[in-house]
Amino acid sequence: MTDNERRVIEKRIGYEFKDKSLVEAAFTHASYVNEHRGVANERLEFLGDCVLDFLVGVELFRNAPDAGEGELTARRASVVSREPLARLVREYGFLELLRVGAGVDRSEFDIKTVSDLYEAVLGAVYLDGGLDAARKFLDKTFFGKVTPERNYRSELQELAAEKKLEIKYDTEENADGGGFTTTVSVGGAVYRGTGRSKRLSQIAAARNALDAIDGH
To answer: Which one from 24, 59, 83, 119 is the annotated catalytic residue?
Structure first.
């Protein structure tokens, strides 16, 4: 990686690394390492995942003093997930800076691979500058941009329990390979939802069920 490439990345991140090898590793995909020397970002992704869980947990703990353990856990799970992280990677243009092997098309990466890049960057920032630097990176790129999602599945489960209705989910991959469709049965009434992943299709189905039930 050239000095100019590193400067471009650091400007995009908003952080200047003391250890330049960390920024190189964060933006190196395993496919690149298979063809060249270097270190892939997989270990940094693991570390970044841990740091993200911790700092988001601290933020939620401070800002939601009345929330119990279960609610805090659900809120953290809704923001520390692949969809919002992948959106941030694309929003900040990180993906186009990732070093990949010859013939590898970044646009074909699945959502996990894309979201992993954000966590790898966070892991590199943490190793280089500690928790304070990691927190500042999240202040700049994460907090205020990602908010807890409404937990439609949990709400539907509670509503079904309150009304003593049986609830059942059935998720199938679409025939054209373009995502998934979930059918949820609530007391015999059937509602459907689609999404790019199983989780998103289940959330959509639960949301549609709640909208229909509330409408009645």
So the answer is: 119
Exactly one of 24, 45, 49, 59 is catalytic; name it. Answer: 49
Q: How far is CA 116 from CA 13, 90, 110, 161, in A?
A: 15, 12, 10, 37
Is residue 158 annotated as a catalytic residue, yes or no?
no
pTM attached to this predicted model: 0.72
**Beta carbons within 8 Å of 122's beta carbon, 6+ residues apart:** 48, 51, 52, 134, 137, 138
Closest Cα to residue 116, out of 31, 52, 12, 41?
Answer: 41
Cβ proximity of 117 and 95 under 8 Å = yes
**Would residue 49 show up in a list of annotated catalytic residues for this protein?**
yes
Question: Are 150 and 210 spatial neighbours (Cβ–Cβ below 8 Å)?
Answer: no
Phi and psi (nearest 5°) for 144?
Answer: 90, -20
pLDDT, position 29: 95
pLDDT tens string 15-68? 999 999 999 999 999 999 999 888 999 999 999 999 999 999 999 999 888 888
